[in-house]
């Protein structure tokens, strides 16, 4: 069997130990542009071949980026053995995160994990270790209950007005599902610190402690796979769709970005003092420059952190009932201001970026956010004064893109995009996203005809 690298005999011992523990298959998983796991699974005795790189794929069109081409160059999955996890919900399978490599002996240009690793290495070259925490929101529902405008009533408690956010009884109604998710998270390397009902009916959030950025991206990828599988066991379904219904709250995935001095333990360079904010000066100059970089590249960042046409139906100032949307639309930051794109929270030494949604590919979003923040530090970009009032009502503040098309145009025009992602990714990603926008924009619906056909 041809492999990209020489087979390591030690991996035969790994395979034997796993087989003795009841593992029958191993999956060297890579992710598509949507952050969804992709791979074939192999009998566990093929682990040594797999580690050397023998699993080959034609990933472009299948990967959700570029067009399918039956004669395209194959790429090879190279697994990271440090990520190997026996799946708690099905112990016959072991899972690993993989990088995609070309036969030229270099990372595949469309490999999200390799794109993130490049930025992580750049941060290290500047003396920083970067961390990431994510707050994913999702809807939980019974597939048979879905209607044209609702997920139906999942919980016995029903809809709590004006919102079920933080409602304890609503959370307890689905405690069997949530308990199994949290228990399973421990087995895949994630530690929850909070779980509860969110603002939409049937919407929930599970928060977990931060990790190094690459490890967090790997774990969140497995988390998303796990949550879907656990939901199915309970006869339920989960969706991370940004805006599933116009009358419901959107699902965000706030990115909490941390920065530590390399080799200096857990102490953050973003805070001057202790663990709680006592004033604006508590934040370091590096934190402010990092924010400055994020704000400078905000419009381009949105093409990656909010990658769907549907994403921009969440980024609105108000919901359909006229109430204020908590999703940010303005390029601003504030000390505890949730109407801004960026918040400097009072309870942790991390910069919270609030506009990403739960459909974002964590590898790609993490890479671009990190690069933008480091650009701010390297060039000492001043973020200006923090916002303390409602940002969405301030017409003097620049706005995030209103559509995916706007975001892609900003993405193409930003030099940092080209530096982070390279020519091949830029070409295929922008073409794919333009197609998505056009496919959504071009169809003429019944409501549109009813409104205009007779009138004009």
From TrEMBL:
GO molecular function: glutamine synthetase activity
Annotated transmembrane regions: none
PROSITE patterns linked: GS_CATALYTIC
Residue ranges annotated for the GS catalytic domain, each copy included: 112-456
Gene3D superfamilies per record: Glutamine synthetase, N-terminal domain, Glutamine synthetase/guanido kinase, catalytic domain
Record key words, sorted: Ligase
Any GO BP annotation: glutamine biosynthetic process
Alphabetized Pfam families for the sequence: Gln-synt_C
Family to which this protein belongs: Belongs to the glutamine synthetase family.
Protein name: Glutamate--ammonia ligase
